[in-house]
Fold Acyl-coenzyme A thioesterase THEM4.
Amino acid sequence: MTFIQDQLADNHCFGCSPDNPHGHHIKSTWDGERSICHFSPKPWHCAGSPHYVYGGLIASLIDCHSVCTAIAEAYQREGRAIGEGETIFYVTGSLNISYLKATPIAGPLVLEARLSEAGRRKSVVLCTLSVNGELCAKAELVAIRVPASWGEA
Ligand SMILES: CCCCCCCCCC(=O)SCCNC(=O)CCNC(=O)[C@H](O)C(C)(C)COP(=O)(O)OP(=O)(O)OC[C@H]1O[C@@H](n2cnc3c(N)ncnc32)[C@H](O)[C@@H]1OP(=O)(O)O
């Protein structure tokens, strides 16, 4: 299986870089229309209850999965394979999450994302998070394209 994150170079992100030793290492697939990510939380990812997932982790997973989806779609729109040629880099402009149900920590968490809008610099990504087919959270993320040098000090 090919994952978006494994095709992106120079990515140090806490949520999605394969090379950040302390990160979440999320893995997302892209089929040309939607992206999927499976994530199994650890017991320490719990909220106030040990049975449910911490909302900040949910936000983090949705953030990275959605931005990676925007990046994958942008490569596709330019007729390039993900990671091919000049780097396409997006960052999170805004993230609006509705926590609909407590998310069982037993997981696995299934994130699914697709674009509702794809402009020159701005993409809007809709993302859901489900466990065992039950919708636990939904989100809208605005991803903004930035130069690949965006993170340089
Ligand atoms: C290989 C790489 C792999 C990378 C994966 C990394 C995943 C990382 C996910 C993250 O966590 S990124 C870190 C969290 N995000 C940030 O730190 C972003 C900080 N903010 C900025 O750097 C700038 O504010 C930003 C680049 C988002 C926008 O500044 P600009 O001056 O370039 O925006 P501009 O004013 O030109 O607006 C461009 C469009 O974006 C829209 N926009 C700008 N900021 C927005 C915002 N905050 N929310 C919603 N929309 C926004 C704006 O309305 C406009 O839309 P329209 O084209 O429709 O008019």
In short: The longest helix spans residues 55-77. The radius of gyration is 15 Å. The chain has a mean pLDDT of 97.
